[in-house]
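dumping this here so i dont lose it
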């Protein structure tokens, strides 16, 4: 009865297993195999067998998350895709919206569409916004399209007809015809992926879904075959971007739901940790080898991004995607992020990463550029001999040589240059954390700060101190926490449907009726029968009359119009800092969140050790803090030997197989009954804040 999860990251592939009968935990961390990520998964399983005695035949549940979808999109390695759309709308995909994030850039260009213009085809048909057929579909228009797709050797066809969210009749007919005529190609109709309005956003969504669908189908088929060959046969699940899991068969139909698969596992895990420590407001940060990803759990629920845009930045509008995605801010600042001197002579860190090959210089695999991992080794936070549980020995001299390439131009010591690299990465992460808190109307001082990833706990104490969070939390197995979080996730599906109505006495009863229809769809989706235990949450998107965009508001079945209006006013004020209590309200969309109750990873309480008061650190190590402190001798504790009831004062280091935690002077480390580490300020920061 082992529940097993694997997470494929940019640098490492992580594994966590939990035996529900014995309480055994199995962990592994192998290098990601970029060319075929499934090989890295098998490597991690084999490593867990050798190291912890993982028993494949006892695995009854397997969850998987990773970067396959987002890599295919960002690296432009999807399949050759065509678009079939309503006559007159061929260029919607390229025109996009009129918004320009980089307003004063006269050389600004809209993002390149994933389908070139010669593969965008038009069909004469028209359905209006109420779903009424205005003009029937001209079937003869499909003949030259089919011929062109054959000639161009198209692998996937996306179909987007105007207002198909209200009536998919024409799209469904077109999909059937193209599927018969192009049996070698994947056919993807927009109503199968999104039933939301806004043609440009739906166009992007269906095109990108078609762009990666054959790749994901092949990947999961190969992974499933490989697991079966290894005698690991059980239900297979994938981590979705909404914070829940779904079967391989379900996600293959809509692979875009995996766009933030790996990071969403970490958010699901942070929500589980928040529940264990009694915190409903949780700020999560996962610092991996390539990126740092942060998100906010509000009222014990991961926050969804209402307008997710892939590759969005300060100067790039990105690609709109109409699938539920946990609100994650991701920056190129991880353990493998490369430090360099820019053209102005300033030190910068990231977004370029050394990845798994060649990796940071300290890995000894040929990397020569300085990274944050090299900096952490140089100042003594990482122990070269015990890093990653001793599975790989770090080379301090190569790390120092790499750091010297930026120290010399800056005219500082190698140690101070290493500390500067860490401080710059620290500042980048603070900015990202403020994006999901302060700029979303939330105060980080109200939240517990759950930090994970291979490099995260080394920075946890300083980040938590600057944000002034309630507490800084280092969860169980922090270096492989996204995989752990997948075992804390339940099957989930989100159903959204555009529905326009003025808020009046009959509007909410009509919304309840339509939401009940979505509930029936959810029951069919999970295929567990009417008696299945499914938790439903209703949300309604609404706006003030005359506005372009709305906000999602929780809705309780049968509530009064006045109660919903007040909840909407409050949500609008939180999002936009004002309310218009006398303005008319319009409903624009319905959202049903459906979660199928299922087992999640158990976290047993530790037994207090009778000799906890007499416990001693395993060793001491010098850590460089800079300034007047310089090198400071810090006790080094093994996490496996820490027990409930122990209270330790910083500065100190806690080591475990997947991460190293640094606690600063003026901070106190406590353990919960489950063994979760909590860092709090004591107000006694003698020697200054490091």
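and the seq i came up w/
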């Amino acid at each position: 009865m082992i529940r097993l999860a694997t997470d494929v990251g940019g640098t490492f592939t992580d594994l966590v297993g939990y035996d529900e009968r014995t309480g055994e935990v199995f962990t592994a961390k192998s290098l990601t195999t970029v060319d075929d990520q499934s090989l890295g998964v098998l490597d991690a399983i084999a490593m867990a067998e050798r190291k912890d005695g993982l028993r494949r035949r006892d695995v009854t549940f397997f969850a998987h998350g990773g970067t396959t979808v987002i890599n295919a999109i960002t690296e432009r390695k999807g399949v050759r895709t065509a678009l079939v759309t309503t006559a007159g709308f061929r260029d919607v995909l390229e025109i996009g919206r009129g918004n320009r994030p980089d307003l004063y850039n006269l050389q600004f260009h809209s993002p390149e569409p994933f389908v070139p213009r010669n593969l965008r085809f038009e069909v004469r048909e028209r359905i209006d916004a109420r779903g009424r057929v205005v003009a029937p579909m001209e079937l003869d228009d499909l003949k030259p399209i089919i011929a062109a797709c054959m000639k161009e050797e198209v692998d996937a066809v996306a179909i987007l007809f105007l207002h198909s969210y209200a009536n998919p009749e024409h799209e469904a007919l077109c999909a059937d015809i193209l599927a018969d005529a192009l049996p070698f190609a994947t056919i993807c109709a927009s109503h199968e992926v999104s039933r939301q309005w806004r043609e440009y956003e739906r166009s992007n969504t269906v095109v990108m879904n078609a762009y990666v669908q054959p790749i994901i189908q092949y990947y999961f088929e190969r992974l499933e075959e490989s697991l079966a060959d290894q005698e690991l046969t059980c239900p297979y699940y994938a981590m979705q971007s909404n914070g829940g899991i779904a079967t391989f068969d379900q996600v293959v139909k809509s692979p875009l739901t995996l766009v933030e698969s790996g990071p969403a596992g970490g958010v699901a895990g942070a929500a589980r940790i928040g529940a264990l420590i009694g915190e409903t407001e949780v700020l999560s940060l996962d610092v991996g080898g390539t990126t740092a990803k942060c998100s906010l759990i509000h009222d014990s629920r991961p926050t969804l991004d209402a307008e997710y845009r892939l590759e969005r930045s300060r100067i790039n509008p990105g690609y709109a995607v109409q699938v539920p995605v946990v609100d994650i801010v991701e920056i190129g600042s991880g353990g493998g992020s490369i430090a360099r001197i820019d053209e102005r002579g300033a030190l910068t860190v990231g977004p370029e990463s050394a990845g798994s090959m060649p990796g940071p210089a300290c890995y000894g695999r040929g990397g020569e550029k300085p990274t944050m991992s090299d900096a952490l080794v140089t100042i003594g936070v990482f122990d070269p001999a015990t890093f990653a549980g001793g599975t790989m020995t770090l080379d301090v001299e190569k790390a120092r040589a790499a750091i010297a390439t930026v120290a010399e131009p800056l005219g500082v010591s190698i140690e101070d240059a290493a500390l500067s690299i860490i401080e710059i990465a620290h500042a980048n992460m603070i900015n990202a954390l403020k994006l999901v808190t302060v700029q979303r109307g939330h105060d980080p001082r109200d939240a517990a700060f759950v930090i994970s990833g291979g490099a995260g706990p080394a920075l946890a104490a300083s980040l938590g101190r600057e944000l002034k969070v309630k507490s800084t939390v280092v969860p169980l197995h922090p270096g492989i926490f996204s995989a752990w979080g997948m075992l804390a996730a339940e099957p989930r599906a989100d159903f959204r449907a555009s529905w326009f109505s003025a808020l009046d006495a009959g509007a909410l009863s009509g919304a309840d009726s339509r939401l009940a229809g979505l509930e029936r769809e959810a029951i069919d989706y999970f295929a567990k029968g009417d008696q299945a235990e499914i938790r439903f949450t209703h949300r309604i998107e609404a706006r003030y009359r005359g506005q372009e965009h709305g906000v999602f508001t929780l809705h309780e079945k049968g509530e009064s119009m006045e109660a919903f209006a007040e909840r909407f006013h409050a949500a609008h004020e939180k999002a936009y800092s004002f309310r218009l209590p006398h303005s008319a309200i319009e409903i624009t969309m319905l959202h049903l969140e459906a979660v199928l109750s299922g087992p999640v990873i158990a976290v047993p309480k530790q037994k207090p050790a009778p000799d906890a008061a007499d416990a001693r650190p395993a060793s001491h190590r010098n850590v460089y803090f800079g300034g007047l402190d310089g090198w400071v001798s810090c006790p080094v504790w093994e996490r496996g030997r820490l027990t409930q009831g122990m209270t330790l004062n910083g500065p100190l280091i806690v080591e475990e197989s997947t991460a190293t935690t640094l606690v600063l002077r003026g901070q106190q480390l406590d353990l919960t009954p489950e063994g979760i580490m909590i860092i709090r300020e004591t107000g006694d920061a003698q020697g200054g804040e490091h």
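The mean pLDDT is 91.
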